[in-house]
Design a protein that fits this description.
By secondary structure, the protein is an alpha/beta fold. The chain has two domains: 6-142, 3-Layer(aba) Sandwich (Rossmann fold); 158-212, Arc Repressor Mutant, subunit A (Orthogonal Bundle), CATH 1.10.10.10. It is 49% helix and 15% strand. It is globular and about 55 Å long.
Length: 225
């Protein structure tokens, strides 16, 4: 285990959750500090001067969506690790968290050992953390995607498929521009053309199209049971 001390954030609009996680995390010897926030807006303001290594982010806050925030944060700072906190065991929520590029998905009734394991996997090993229940959902979804073929009615060029896959991986226009050595404006034009062809209105709909038509299969090699 590394000697580095980490700063952890807990973003949740319920005091009991914030206080409970703070109390638990402060007992871990590799944690330097635990910061708590009632909202995503509060976290984003403080993050400018107080950087966290990892945050536990509530999936639903008052007037805020944790998954939307996860995608937005990851687009601007891929180094910040994010573990979604959720009371939901539904397949849809688990897959949405996965598609939002979250580093993990933790049920709010998780045990102390599960919380500690999630931190160690995400921070120390660079792995994703989804427990057995959530991981089985992802495996089932991946297997179903392997049986599907591309939608023959929609003609995407090889370049558009390449860009669609990068969008599905959570890459921003700037990041795709750098990877493909193209201008951001060119990537933005490709993105809009893809959206027009498939009838998508936003990135989430693009991701759903890519996955449901077998053009993008989630990479689960970084997951361990």
């Amino acid at each position: 285990m590394e000697n580095k001390q980490y700063i952890i954030g807990v973003v949740d609009d319920h005091f009991a959750i914030r206080d409970g996680y703070k109390s638990l995390l402060e007992k871990l010897d590799f944690i330097e500090d635990v910061k708590t926030y009632e909202s995503i807006a509060e976290f984003q303001i403080d993050y400018k001067s107080n950087k966290c290594d990892l945050i536990f982010l509530d999936i639903e806050l008052t007037n805020e969506n944790g998954l939307d925030a996860c995608r937005e944060i990851k687009n601007h700072n891929s180094y910040l690790k994010i573990i979604i906190l959720s009371a939901y065991h539904d397949d849809q929520y688990i897959m949405n968290a996965f598609n939002s590029n979250a580093d993990g998905y933790l049920f709010k009734d998780a045990t102390k050992n599960e919380v500690q394991e999630s931190i160690q996997k995400v921070l120390f090993s660079g792995e994703k953390y989804f427990n057995h229940e959530a991981l089985s959902v992802i495996f089932r979804f991946q297997e179903s995607l392997k049986k599907k073929k591309s939608n023959s009615k929609t003609e995407l060029s090889d370049r558009e498929i390449q860009i669609l896959k990068l969008i599905c991986e959570g890459k921003s226009n700037d990041q795709i521009s750098s990877l493909l050595n193209r201008t951001t404006a060119t990537i933005a034009t490709h993105r809009q053309n893809i959206m027009n062809k498939v009838g998508a209105h936003n990135s989430l709909e693009l991701i759903n199209f890519g996955m449901s038509n077998g053009l993008y299969v989630p990479n689960i090699h970084n997951f361990k049971k």
